[in-house]
Amino acid sequence: MLGRLEVLPVRDPRGPEARRFIQLPFSLYRACPQWVPPFRVDMRALLERRPPFFEHSPGEFYIARRGPRTVGRVMVLENTRYNARHVRRFGFFYLFECAEDPEAAAALLEAAELWARVRGLASVVGPGGMGAGTGVGVLVEGFEHYYSARLDSRTFRMPERVRALAGKVLARGHFRLLEFRRKRDLLAIAPRLGEIYNTAIAASHPDSYPYTPAEIARVIRQFAQVAEPSLIKVIAYQGQIAGFVFGFPDLSAALQRARGRLTPWSLLDLAAECRRTDSLIINGAGILPQYQRLGGNALLYHTLERTANSGRFRRGEMTQIADTTSLMLADMQTLGGRVYKTHRVYKRDL
C-alpha cells in the first residue's frame, strides 16, 4: 500500500517540512555516483529566503508525502525582473525532485500551477528561473535546449586562423588582455564584470535577468571562494573592460566527499582539490555586444587555450550553453568541444 498522498507547503524554514525538503535528494540519489550534492546550509538559506533574489521576487516551497515518507519536492517562483526584462508572465518551477511516483509528481506540479494562477501568471516554465548560473533544465537525451560540451586536452586546440586572428587583434593595440596573480586585484574589478553580465549575458540567455546590486555582491562573494586568478581571463578595449571568460577548477569530487556538509575538513578538502583536479570548468563568458565581432572572442579563448594546455588539466567542460547563444555555440565548436549532455526545459500554458 503506497499510503495517502499529501502536498504540503514549507511554512517554517526551521521546521520538519524544511528538513524533509533539504534531505530528499540525499535520499533519492545516495546510490548515484554522478550526483554532486549541494551544501545543506545553502539550501537552508534559500528556504529562509535570505538570497537577495527574494527582495524582488516571491516564491513558495512544497513537499509531497506518503505517510512518513517524503516522495517529492518543488519550488515555485515568480521572477519579476525576468518577466519585466522579457515582457512575459511566467511562473517558474525549480528544485523539482521526485521518487518514481507519477501521482506525486503530478500533484507537485499542480500545486506550482495553482500558485502561479493565483498570481495571474500565464505559464509555468522549468526547471529554472533563478538565473543562468543556478542550473537549468532536466538532463535528458536528444532535445536541444541547453548544452554542455566536453573538451579533451588532446583536441582543445584553436584553429590556426583563430590563433592568427588573436595575434592581429593584440597587434592593433585596441584590445588588451588583463591577467591577474592576486585575488584582491581580480575582486577589485568584479563589480564591473557584474555589469557586463547584465548587458552581455542577461540580454541573450533565455533564463537570465539583470541582477540587482545586492545579487551581484552575493555572486562576487561566492566567486571569491573558488576563483583562481590565473583561470579568469578579462579583456579591455581602449582601456575599458569589454569581456571575460571564467575558468574554475572542477571541485565535484570534493563536493561529493563533503556530502552536503560544510565543515573545516570539507573546506580543507576543497582547497586541496583545487590543486589536484585535472578538470577545468568553463562557466561564464560574456563580451559586450559592441565588441563581439572585433576579435575579442578569439583573444579570450586563445589565452584560455594556453592555460588549459599548460599540462595541469586533461579535460574541460563548458556548462549549460543556451541554444539561443549562437556565438557561444560557435566558439564551443571552434574549441573542439563535443556536446555530451542536453538539458530540457518544459513550459505549460495555464
Question: Rg from C-alpha positions?
Answer: 21 Å
**How is the biggest beta sheet arranged?**
8 strands, mixed
**Category from helices, strands and their pairing:** alpha+beta
- CATH superfamily membership of the largest domain, which one? Gcn5-related N-acetyltransferase (GNAT)
Integer tally of domains = 2
Series of H and E elements:
EHHEEHEHEEEHEHHHEEHHEHEHEE
Intertermini distance: 33 Å
Strand order of the largest sheet: 6-13-7-12-11-10-9-8
The tally of helices reads 12
The whole-number mean of residue pLDDT values reads 84
Strand content: 25-35%
Q: Identify the CATH class of the largest domain.
A: Alpha Beta
Describe the structure.
The protein is α+β, with helices and mostly antiparallel strands and 350 residues long. It has 2 domains: 5-130, Aminopeptidase (3-Layer(aba) Sandwich); 146-342, Gcn5-related N-acetyltransferase (GNAT) (Aminopeptidase, 3-Layer(aba) Sandwich), CATH 3.40.630.30. Helices cover 38% and strands 27% of the residues. It contains 12 helices and 14 strands. The protein has helices at residues 16-28, 40-47, 80-86, 102-118, 160-172, 183-188, 190-201, 213-226, 252-258, 264-276, 296-308, 326-334; strands spanning 5-9, 59-66, 69-77, 90-98, 123-126, 138-140, 146-152, 175-178, 232-237, 240-249, 279-287, 315-322, 338-344, 346-349. The strands form 2 sheets. The protein has an 8-stranded mixed beta sheet with strand order 6-13-7-12-11-10-9-8. A 6-stranded mixed beta sheet has the order 1-2-3-4-5-14. Helix 5 packs across helix 11 and helix 9 packs antiparallel against helix 10 (264-276). It starts with a strand and ends with a strand. The mean pLDDT is 84.
